[in-house]
Amino acid sequence: MKCRHCGAPLTLPFIDLGAAPPSNAYLTADALNGPETWYPLRVLVCTTCWLVQTEDHAGREELFSADYAYFSSTSTSWLAHAKGYAEAMTARFGLTSGSMVVEIAANDGYLLQYVKALGIPCYGIEPTASTAAAARGKGIEIDERFFGVALARELAAAGRGADLMAANNVLAHVPDINDFAAGFAALLKPAGVATFEFPHLLRLVQENQFDTIYHEHYSYLSLTSVARIFEANGLRCFDVEELPTHGGSLRVYAQRADAGPHEMSPRLAALLAREADAGMTAAAFYSGFQPRAEKVKDDLVAFLIDAKRQGLKVGAYGAAAKGNTLMNFAGIRPDLVPYVVDRAAAKQGKFMPGSRIPIVDEEQLKADRPDIVLILPWNIRDEVMPQLAYIRDWKARFVTAVPELAIV
After folding, report:
1. How many CA atoms lie within 13 A of 3 on its CB side?
2. Above 90 in pLDDT, residue 191?
3. Do 69 and 130 meet the contact criterion of CB atoms below 8 Å apart?
4. I need a surface site. Which of 122, 182, 312, 325 has the fewest CB within 10 A?
């Protein structure tokens, strides 16, 4: 395999999580009677541009299908994040009723609803029919296609250029990262700004966040690799922020390389230097990750087996993609975790891919009164625990597995 950005041969392994079906391919009851398609889940490192990436096995149309089940508005903390973003960008870049905001991967309108409420014209690009329909239900204009240079040029020619483009948690999801990045350069107005949010690879490695690895994430991104990709495709980074979202993310600000007016922020150089000091441009940084992931797997399985032997009841919360990575890597099935509670109606009544654990609504948790609640999306633990505080009434305990097994 060759690097999806620079084309160099990939020889440095990062992690091998075995095989799994796509993490958002939730199963219906009827589908349980048929087979699932599993793909190898291996990640390699490009020692030329330092882009970390999965092996190519599944195409984007299969991973991001019409019945895609991830709806961003399910998380209240993420909605608050989106509202804050809309307000901050409006103030920083002087957006008005004469501006145009475009979000790539607009999902269910979780962000653009706040842009629209501020009186700023906007539209979204969203290829998955299920979430696009939800966004339209909020009165948001959606172009239901995959984004790249061809679509960007079509929109720009139609006078739909952007003053601000938002791309939250999508840069890692694109197989052709060069075409995707070049699309921003094509659609931005000369003084336009694009922001990209994505989980920071430095945090992923340092904090053992291996469960954020799944097929829908084609790339695992550092500022170092992103800056190189953007420079090669007509964009230039000018600022960066570190965010707490998704276990530690970056918000990178970019402009057109040929016309952008913004000066480089000292924060950009400082973070690039910190990544270099951490060793992110050397092979040694990426070694040793496999055994750390395997320790989490082994500790969780041992804990669940011990709980079963003690006669303790276990329930899980959050049918998130990262939970599917963990369950399938660990080989956990309904005998150890009989159900997963999720607030997303689109997931309820379905089954986790691979593990085939039933997804239920919160009433199941209240009726079952488990002794242990395993929170799979550990990154929103502080949001989930207050919501489920009532489990303390029957002396139940919360457990998270990543970055290490913790009983709360």
Report:
1. 21
2. yes
3. yes
4. 312
Burial of 299 (0-12, 13-18, 19+ CB in 10 A): middle
Contact 195, 89 (CB under 8 A): yes
124 vs 112: CA distance, rounded Å: 8
Numbered ranges of CATH 3.40.50.150 in the chain: 72-262
386 sits in the region (left: phi over 0; alpha: psi -120 to 50; else beta) called alpha
Q: Which helix or strand (DSSP H or E) is residue 155 part of?
A: helix 149-157
Q: What's the pLDDT tens digit per position in 198-243?
A: 999 999 999 999 999 999 899 999 999 999 999 999 999 999 999 9
Which CATH number fits the domain 72-262, given the four candidates 3.40.640.10, 1.20.1420.30, 3.40.50.150, 2.60.120.560?
3.40.50.150
| Chain segment 141-181, per-residue pLDDT in tens | 999 999 999 999 999 999 999 999 999 999 999 999 999 99
Judge residue 126's burial from the number of C-beta atoms within 10 Å of its C-beta, 0-12 exposed, 13-18 middle, 19 or more buried.
Answer: buried
Reduced 3-state DSSP string for 58-94: CCHHHHCCCCCCCCHHHCHHHHHHHHHHHHHHHHHHC
Q: Between the CA of residue 311 and those of 173, 306, 360, 393, what are the distances in Å?
A: 41, 9, 22, 19
Starting at the edge strand found earlier in the chain, the sheet holding 52-54 runs: 12-20, 39-45, 52-54, 219-220
Consecutive H or E run containing 224: helix 223-231
Side-chain half-sphere exposure of 263, counting CA atoms within 13 A: 2
All residues at 6 or more sequence positions from 180 whose CB lies less than 8 Å from its CB, including other chains: 147, 148, 171, 174
Contact predicate 251/243, CB 8 Å: yes
* Secondary structure letter of residue 295 according to DSSP: H
192 and 263 Cβ atoms separated by less than 8 Å: no
Residue pLDDT, tens place only, 71-111: 777 788 899 999 999 999 999 999 999 999 999 999 999 99
pLDDT tens across 274-311, in order?
999 999 999 999 999 999 999 999 999 999 999 999 99
Please provide the CATH number assigned to the domain covering 289-407: 3.40.50.720
Domain with CATH 3.40.50.720 in the chain: 289-407
